[in-house]
Amino acid sequence: MRPSGRALDEMRPVSIETGVTKHAEGSCMIRVGDTHVLCTATIEDRVPPFIKGSGLGWVTAEYGMLPRSTTSRMRREASAGKQGGRTVEIQRLIGRSLRAGVDRVALGERQITVDCDVIQADGGTRCASITGGWVALKLAVQKLMKAGDVTSDPLVDPVGAVSCGIYAGQLVLDLDYPEDSEAGVDGNFIMTASGRMIEAQMSAEGSTFTRDQMTGLLDLAEKGVQELAELQRAAMNA
């Protein structure tokens, strides 16, 4: 039924390679099928003005797609002088998703910026960015702990994200681009490894869905995030 030949509840092949850049405090390359995203984390001894003096840390994100990450060249947003609405939406999603898994008191009054650069896109770039972004963030925090700047780990539960949808009338896990472009319903689900929900984005794209179907998609998403969490842990221990 699926263009890739995968089972309905089967993820694309996923790999996470850590330490891929020299200068960032945390970095990884995450590959989810043919979607490849470079994630880097940068530690700064400052926070936004609205939390200055509060003792709380902050995690934020930036997101971008390289000009030939897709089938035809897209113009760099910097050359247009502003970010597009899709880019702003996605980087806000990444930031608030990662913050949901952070004890900001334990992090202390510092900011970590997670940059997610899409090298190649084939569906699910925001989900791959969140999943890889958590690994980069974790690596950066480990450096803080090793230096004694943070005494207790502010990242206890991994955060992952996966897409699910209804394609050709079937509930499917981890949509690639051919499925995403044809799905009657698609959604992005962000969860912790322990199954706590952070965010769910579901919408009909020409077809409505039932409450039972929504539950089925949530079940698929939970399975996918559990698999991603195992890969995140394995990458951290590699």
Written description of the protein model:
Helix content is 32%, strand content 29%. The protein contains six helices and nine strands, in the order E-E-E-E-H-H-H-E-H-E-E-H-E-E-H. Helix 2 (85-99) packs across helix 4 and helix 4 packs parallel to helix 6 (211-237). It has helices spanning 77-80, 85-99, 104-107, 125-146, 177-180, 211-237; strands spanning 14-18, 26-32, 35-44, 58-65, 111-120, 159-167, 170-173, 185-192, 197-204. Strands 1-2-3-5-4 form a five-stranded mixed β-sheet. A four-stranded antiparallel β-sheet has the order 7-6-8-9, with helices on both faces. The protein has one domain (14-236): Ribosomal Protein S5, domain 2, CATH 3.30.230. It is globular and about 50 Å long. A hairpin with a 4-residue loop joins strand 8 (185-192) and strand 9 (197-204).
- SS element count, helices: 6
Count of the separate structural domains: 1
Query: What is the fold-level CATH name, i.e. the topology?
Result: Ribosomal Protein S5, domain 2
Number of strands: 9
Helices and strands: which structural class? alpha+beta
Cα distance, first to last residue?
A: 36 Å
CATH structural architecture: 2-Layer Sandwich
Percent range of helical residues:
25-40%
For this structure, what is the CATH class? Alpha Beta
Radius of gyration: 18 Å
Which strands sit side by side, in order, in the main sheet?
A: 1-2-3-5-4
Major β-sheet, in short?
5 strands, mixed
Q: Report low-confidence residues grouped into runs of 5 or more.
A: none
The chain-level mean pLDDT equals: 95
Strand content: 25-35%
N to C succession of SSEs: EEEEHHHEHEEHEEH
> Which term fits the overall shape?
globular
User: What is the CATH superfamily label?
Assistant: GHMP Kinase, N-terminal domain
Family: Belongs to the RNase PH family.
Catalytic activity: tRNA(n+1) + phosphate = tRNA(n) + a ribonucleoside 5'-diphosphate
Enzyme class: transferase
EC number: 2.7.7.56
